[in-house]
Design a protein that fits this description.
Keywords: Membrane, Transmembrane, Transmembrane helix. This protein is about 10% helix and about 55% strand. It is mainly β. Strands 2, 5, 8, 9, 10, 11, 12, 13, 14, 16, 17 and 19 form a 12-stranded mixed beta sheet that branches. Strands 15, 18, 20, 22, 23, 25 and 26 form a 7-stranded mixed beta sheet that branches. Strands 6-4-1-3-7 form a 5-stranded mixed beta sheet. Strand 11 and strand 12 form a beta hairpin. The longest helix is centred in the first third of the chain and has 23 residues. The chain is elongated. The termini are far apart.
Length: about 400
């Protein structure tokens, strides 16, 4: 038999290579087990409910979980590269065809191949599935606050005033009303505002977030009017006999509160309720007029009729000569008046003649702060009550102020 011989390596490089490989393997195990060991980490991932897979006509009403806790493992280097946003927790509805409470698995989508999913909690979630319905509801506007002082709200209009509401059938049954809440903030002009719509349940709770609304807001047009209090008056036609006058006119009510656009209100200073023929007047006459207002003006009072009472009287004229008093004369001075009397012509109504105290009629000049000298001073008159008018003649008199010739008493 032929003998086979093995050639011996010419040098020791072969064994050195073998030893190097063994050392590398040992170092690899050392680095991965000591320097870069396998570790675990807990992350919290929001659950994504894949609504696109839910059958038409059904809706997810509520769930018992919004997130899952996931324990992942890997080397320290690999764990440091993990971005929680890239890991997804998904619930699929593809197999759901009925309403009620259903338990579904949570599927974890992990894009990191060197990271292992050790644990998931919860692994399943309970969901409530309901019928998806759509209804229509009126929107009512609720106004808070007040307009600026001197202004009122005349009304408002919302657009649209009906909206569609889509949501779970059991939630829709809880709806009590739809409102748009508007704060005036001391407005003094008509305005338009876009106001959010709120869906309210029977307990007054805002449940808007449960639904899809065809309109999340409505446009509200608010009309604001300026207010004003103006006197009521009456017109007369014809004339009374020369000896007769209208002594008093009483209107009930005598004023009225009105509202209107600012330009209309500013042009109104009084409202004439009617015209009376003076030929119809007696000593006391009463008339009634149905109340009417100018166009575009609104009454704020419940006034339907105005009662007017008119008194007529005879005018009496009487002239009285009375002395002129000097008031305000300083001590040690005397005053000489020229003339020292004036004539006062009084006018008053005959019906009050007996109540007039003619002795209380006074005429005087005021010399306060005046010293010696000659002055032309106005004559003032204090008239008795119930005297309607007077004239004094002359209106000015001459006043000479001089020192008193008599010594003052000590």
């Amino acid at each position: 038999m032929k003998k086979i011989s093995v050639k011996k390596p010419k040098d020791d490089n072969f064994w050195l290579r073998i030893v190097s490989i063994l050392i590398a393997i040992v170092l690899w195990f050392y680095v991965n087990s000591i320097i870069n060991p396998i570790k675990k980490r807990e992350v919290i991932i929001p659950i994504k409910y894949n609504m696109t897979t839910l059958s038409k006509g059904l809706v997810l009403r509520e769930t018992d979980a919004k997130e899952v806790r996931i324990v992942v493992s890997g080397t320290q280097d690999e764990l440091s590269k993990v971005d929680e946003k890239n890991i997804q927790a998904v619930v699929d509805f593809s197999d759901i065809r009925q309403t009620g409470e259903i338990k579904l698995p949570v599927t974890i989508q992990n894009p990191y191949h060197r990271i292992n999913i050790e644990n998931v909690y919860p692994k399943n979630v309970t969901v409530s599935i309901d019928n998806l319905v759509t209804i229509q509801r009126d929107v009512s506007v609720e106004i808070s606050g007040n307009p600026k002082k001197g202004y009122i709200i005349n009304g408002y209009q919302e657009e649209p005033n009906v909206i569609s509401i889509r949501g779970a059938e059991s939630d829709v049954k809880e709806i009590s009303k739809c409102i748009a809440q508007l704060n005036l903030s001391l407005n003094d002009r008509p305005f338009k505002a876009s106001v959010p719509v709120k869906v309210i349940d029977s307990r007054g709770k805002d449940i808007t977030s449960l639904f899809d609304l065809s309109q999340k807001s409505v446009d509200v047009y608010v009309e604001i009017l300026k207010t004003k209090q103006v006197p009521l008056s009456v017109k007369f036609k014809g004339s009374l006999p020369p000896s007769k006058v209208i002594s008093k006119v009483i209107l009930k009510p005598s004023t009225i509160n009105i509202a209107g656009k600012e330009e209309d209100i500013n042009s109104i200073n009084e409202i004439i309720v009617g015209t009376i023929d003076t030929k119809m007047l007696e000593n006391k006459s009463t008339f009634q007029f149905d109340f009417s207002l100018p166009k575009n003006i609104k009454s704020l009072d419940n006034v339907k009729q105005v009662t007017i009472t008119i008194y007529t009287d005879s005018v009496v004229e009487k002239s009285i000569n009375i002395p002129v008093e000097v008031r305000g004369l300083k001590p040690g001075l005397v005053a000489k008046l020229s003339p020292d009397k004036v004539k006062v012509a009084l006018k008053y109504y005959q019906s009050v003649q007996d109540s007039i105290d003619f002795n209380s009629l006074k005429a005087y000049v005021d010399v306060s702060n005046l010293t010696k000298g000659s002055y032309d001073l106005q004559v003032f008159v204090e008239k008795p009550p119930n005297v309607e008018d007077f004239e004094v003649s002359p209106i000015y008199i001459k006043v000479e102020i001089s020192e008193s010739s008599q010594p003052q008493s000590q």
